Amino acid sequence: MEVRVGIKTEGEPILRKDGEFIVLENMLIGDGFHWERTIRAILSGKVELLKIGKSKDKKDTEENEHNQFQSEDRISLINSLPLETYLECVVGSEMNPSAPIEFLKAHAVISRSWVLGKILNIHFCDSEGHINTEDRLIGWDDTGIHRRFHVCSDDHCQRYQGLQPVHPTSLKAIQDTADEILISDKGNVIDARFSKCCGGVTELFSTCWQPVELDYIKSFNDPWCDLSGLSLQSRRLLLSGVLKDYDLSTPGYGYRWETEITKAEIESNLRKKFGRDIGKLLKVIPLHRGPSRRIDLIRLEGTQSSLDIGKELWIRRLLSPNHLYSSAFDIEDLGDKLKLHGSGWGHGVGLCQIGAANMAAKGASYEEILTFYYPGARLIKNPKFQPSGI
User: Fold this and answer.
1) What is the mean pLDDT of the segment spanning 245-256?
2) What are the strands of the beta sheet with 136-141, ordered from one edge?
């Protein structure tokens, strides 16, 4: 089975041939996040060049003229390659091979399950939505938005950074779980979401994306991502195994964090990123939180008008030059600026990578990890599914 990956580049792609492979000199990773950068990537399989940018359809342009976060922006080529080769790239891109083997096995299963759902075209295919009124701006940009390919190469889907030297441990994790996926009670491959750190409580699907719930995505207390009980040396060892070098710069590994932003910066972000102006910002008021305390609706009160904004990712974009670590935060109003006291890194839905790695380090099997984070889902081998066309 083949995966079509839409790859982001910084400008027009710079490609060269190296034997049987294609070398891409300017793959873009972390688009819009605090670790954004370009890397060299080695691609196998077929490469198809595209014109950079989103559709220039008049209606699409009018609806999104102020939205700089369209997921197909900066996609410049499509890389088609076998599913298991793609998984080797993903497991190597998402975390380091020195991570606990049972964690790598769990991640291989969820990465395979998730991308298979995209190939089969069964996970919320019409999954971009927004409400745009005078006093309310709510949107989400889910992974099913892609039309010309199954998945993109960046954190919007799963990290895909091309072929890398495959460590024997990572390869063993993929081989030992070959053809294994998670299915729901209805027999469908699950939409296996994951994030870096849930912050102590996992989140519901509806807080971040469509207003629906999935039977195998629950909110519950997760004690495993709290590493405060570990010695400094043990904590560093675990994190260096799970996180890539650019992720390790994240303060407190995202479990607890603080940041400040001026009200003037929020006003500027609102104009530049969302095309709205409410005058001078007076207050920022959380209106609704999910069970992990992630805010999915927030009110901005200004001198000219008020505006409600959601969901969680749009809030994270509003209150940061790039993205906040998560939308689970309390607000301390300091006059001309806000201090945010936050928890978690990412949306918090499904598997918590740091929590899962800690479970594995404490002796949990990959089956136990999957059962913990996707209650009700079943592990099966050799599924008989037919892929959908693109």
Assistant:
1) 74
2) 128-132, 136-141, 306-310, 295-302, 281-289
Tokens of 287: 């209106």
Task: Identify the helix (H) or strand (E) that includes residue 91.
Answer: helix 83-94
The pLDDT score that the predictor gives to residue 325 is 92
Rounded alpha-carbon distances, angstroms, from residue 169 to 91, 108, 158, 213:
11, 12, 20, 35
> Residue 131's beta-bridge partner residues?
138
Neighbours of 238 (CB within 10 A): 22
CB 143 within 8 A of CB 123: yes
Q: What gap in Å lies between CA 181 and CA 110, rounded to an integer?
A: 7
Residues near 92 by Cβ (< 8 Å), separated by ≥ 6? 161, 164, 166, 167, 170
Give the mean pLDDT of 50-57. Answer: 53
> Measured between alpha carbons, how far is residue 110 from residues 5, 287, 338, 370 in Å?
17, 33, 37, 8
As a residue count, the chain comes to 390
Quick check: 265 and 235 in contact, CB under 8 A?
Answer: no
Question: pLDDT digits over 319-375, tens only?
Answer: 998 789 999 999 999 999 999 999 999 999 999 999 999 999 999 999 999 999 999
- Residue 242 · residue 353 · CB < 8 Å: yes
pLDDT tier, 226 (very low <50, low <70, confident <90, very high otherwise): very high
Is the model more confident about 75 or about 295? Answer: 295
> CA–CA separation, 102 vs 81, rounded Å?
26
As given in the structure block, the two tokens for residue 206 are 């509806």
Cα-Cα end-to-end distance for the chain: 13
Token representation of residue 123: 């996970």
> Tokens standing for 265?
């910066």
Structure tokens at 367: 């089956």
Rounded CA separation 375/192 (Å): 12
Instruction: Verify cis geometry, omega within 30 degrees of 0, for the bond prior to 381.
Output: no
Q: Give me the amino acid identity at 173.
A: A
Q: pLDDT tens digits, residue range 146-178?
A: 778 888 877 677 778 787 666 788 889 989 999
